[in-house]
Amino acid sequence: MPRLRLFFALVLSLVQIQSYRLPDLYVPTFYELDLNLPPEAFTNTSDTFQGRVSIQFLVTNATSFVALHAHHDFVQVQRVVFNDTEVLTGNYSVDNTTDILNVSLPVEIDSSVSYSLVIEYTGRLSTRDMYGLYKSYYLDANGTVRYLVTTQFEATYARRAFPCFDEPALKAVFGLSVTVPNELNVLFNTKQTSNVTNETTGLTSIVFNTTPLMPTYLLALVVSDFTCTSGASIGNTTYQVCSRNESAATRQLALDLGPQLLAALNNFTGYDYGVAMEKMDQVAIPDFAAGAMENWGLVTYRETAILWDINESSNRYRQRVATVIAHEFAHQWFGDLVTPKWWSEIFLNEGFATYFEFFTTHEVLPSWQLDKQFVIEELHAALLDDSLENAHALQSSCSTPAEISSKFSTISYSKGGSVLRMVEHVMQLQNFRTGLQNYLTTYQFSNTEPENLWDILNQNVVNSVSRLPANLTTVMENWTKSSGYPVLDVDWNGNQVTISQKRFLISGEVRSGDWYVPISYTVSSDLNKFHNTTPNAWLVPSSNLTITLPSNTEWIILNNHQTGFYRVNYGNNLWNRIRNALTGTNFDGITEINRAHIVDDLFNLARAGQVFYPAVLDTVSYLVNETSYFPWYSALSGFSFLLKRVGEESLLGQTISSNILRLMSALYDSVPISTLRDDDVIYTHTQTLALAWACKLGKADCVWDVKDLFSQYQSSGIKPNKNLRSVVYCNALRYSNNNRTDWEFLWNSYLNSTGLATEQITVLSALGCTRDVILLREYLNKTITDGSGIRPQDALSVFVSVYSGSPEGVDVAFEFLMGNYITIATKYAGFNSLGKLITGLAQTFTTQDQIARLRNFIMSNNLPEDFQVAAGQALEIAETNARWLQTYQNDLWNYYNLPASGSDRVNLSLLLLLGTAILVLSFYK
Description:
Layout: H1 3-16, E1 26-36, E2 48-59, E3 63-69, E4 75-82, E5 85-87, E6 92-94, E7 100-109, E8 115-124, E9 132-139, E10 145-152, E11 173-181, E12 185-188, E13 192-198, E14 203-208, E15 221-224, E16 227-230, E17 238-243, H2 252-269, E18 279-285, E19 292-293, E20 298-302, H3 315-331, E21 338-340, H4 347-364, H5 370-385, H6 401-406, H7 410-427, H8 429-443, E22 446-448, H9 450-458, H10 472-481, E23 486-493, E24 496-503, E25 511-512, E26 517-519, E27 521-523, E28 537-539, E29 545-548, E30 556-558, E31 567-569, H11 571-583, H12 592-607, H13 613-619, H14 629-646, H15 651-663, H16 665-670, H17 681-696, H18 700-716, H19 725-734, H20 739-751, H21 757-767, H22 773-782, H23 792-805, H24 807-827, H25 831-842, H26 848-860, H27 865-895, H28 903-924
Parallel strand pairs: 1-11, 17-18, 18-20, 21-22, 23-31
Antiparallel strand pairs: 1-2, 2-8, 3-7, 4-5, 4-8, 6-7, 9-10, 10-15, 11-14, 12-15, 13-14, 16-17, 19-20, 23-24, 24-25, 24-29, 26-28, 27-30
Helix pairs in contact: 1-27, 2-3, 2-4, 3-4, 4-5, 4-7, 5-7, 5-12, 5-14, 7-8, 8-9, 9-10, 12-14, 14-15, 17-18, 17-19, 18-19, 19-21, 20-21, 21-23, 22-24, 23-24, 23-25, 24-25, 25-27, 26-27
């Protein structure tokens, strides 16, 4: 094993020695939590508060100690009382590594009765990140700083706010009383039962209804001066949206859509939300680490995910608000009502929420075509991430907080949702729905693991050999417990095709695969079959499948509407037939989603060395006649990879760019910048995609148009159309003749747009598009400078905008990361963000010099544990990309008939060979 990989393996093995799980002894039943948040906590002078928690619990076996969670940095235990007997100070302590508070009891206890543990403590509000009980702020209309206190407990942060059994299976009922300054409002998971104001002390004491049985991570609290607007009730459930008072007008979209989405989920699940929870509050938080959080009855959001201005916010943000609300509402059933036993099965939360995010919103707003958007945005992203060697399985072990955090990934969300969608189409929708209704009823207020879900769904599968070759638990085992997925090889032989499977790895390595694969297909003579997604047959482990075709068949395409989670490689003969169909006059007889499917498969099969790039580029030449958003989304993702690898400004990169612009001609003409259709979501998505790419690749009229619109904005103060701003802002800076003047104009517009988060994020993303290295360095430095105007939650977006905006930005971002990684980890809210930075940045590396600098950075610094693992992954990504360039660049040069003696080609090859030699020598010396 190479020394660097051995180092990472040793780090991981040492982490595993310490147990982070609580003993399987305790059953908490009730918490009474009392928090006292003094006026000073809502200033910049103090971050402390007083807390007291009384926990009723049972034990399953005799024991003389209690182990629960408390984070030593945020909870300082002052007093512990067990069953009215005070525990001496020396008999309790917190393990600073595992966050476990061990309490040695004065007597041995058994399972015969309930016990009480009371802990009084001094708490500290977090001000350096957005986890636990933390402090946020905003500027009101007068420019005055207003502070608020809120929570983010998922996954392991409730222990920062109060001592508790902080594991998802340890559900209990919670009661809360809180004391706060009189002028502030308090929201909790449940409604208030009493509110007593003391004018002398200036404090108000509030008591809330007890919660349903729930895990600690779903508790939530917001203490602020926010105002709320009530929406339509859903049955007996009240509904409101709360935010800074200045943003009240931007609540309307959430007020309109929220009740519709909740009602749709009530109907689909057959389980009325109001049975478990009396209200639904949604709150926009100025500083929020996640996109949103599904706290039961009190959902919290980033402002961009819940507030939308009809005149100023784009349709992309409109869609984001709708889908994020649907995602969080789905969690009220999948996660809140029924909870996974442990974080290793978090896909049972996030997979379902991702599925309903798209398909519930599609039910309410069908014109947005979110059923199709799911394929290109979620399924294709999951197929890419799951093709990596180090991808984790849907069901995989985790113990430490860092490991748990890593499970909140594209695999859990997007693959989870995609696999559930596959099961839906195998079972057919009504059977799937009935099974889920039974699942929720059976496991309400309880915890599950995947086998529980499959067993109940299996009872609702129609008995048909073509639909299910074994019981569902057996069918789903490899889909959930193994990483990866199959690529199906289709061998055409006369009037038959033979289908076999192997695991698909983007690296090109060949591995066997043993999945139960549902096969739907369409042949050239019966195009209506594209709309039948129920499996025609199954490919089972260790066997091939042979399908006999009608005599007049020109081609066969597998995986109707790409409902199955797999890729398909058709072999030369059949690929040629499919290419002929696409380049013919009736290419749209193949549905647009299957066209997107074919394009995405081709680019990734070529990347893995299973299809030759000339065959891919010949096939996608049909795009010259394509104007559908969905195939183009997939195609531009594929072309983006090529440009990143070869370098946009190399001769090869410029040639590929020219070819893309030629193919885009019909698409570009179909969505002219002068034709606006703000009510048509798919049109504006298509227009933004086409214009962004045309301008980035240097299409002259596109560049002229956006610069003209930006100039008009500068002179008149009238902003471009809301759906065009991202394109106009970015490319006006990219092609600016007055870099600093234009950049500072846009930066000042950011500083002056504090009332609308969607506009701020649009501007922040565009500011990284400048190619001025000095400005880029200054911009990145703002992310670690207090008072610069950039919030910690947005620092990651700034960093990404810099390295993705231009080739110059890649080196500037890498230089900044190497020089400031400790500060970045603090300012960007944790090492988890640092890991995202380095793995994302590594995707853009194109030279051996960049790889050598990355390797030296890793080996020369004592990197924190979480970052070490991410840095190793980043190095693997960069090395894989370099190998790709060595392997495939000649194919691309030859395809485009570029001169064999081209300086780019010769110099690049020499650089790769020389760089590889230097690295090998330095690595093993």
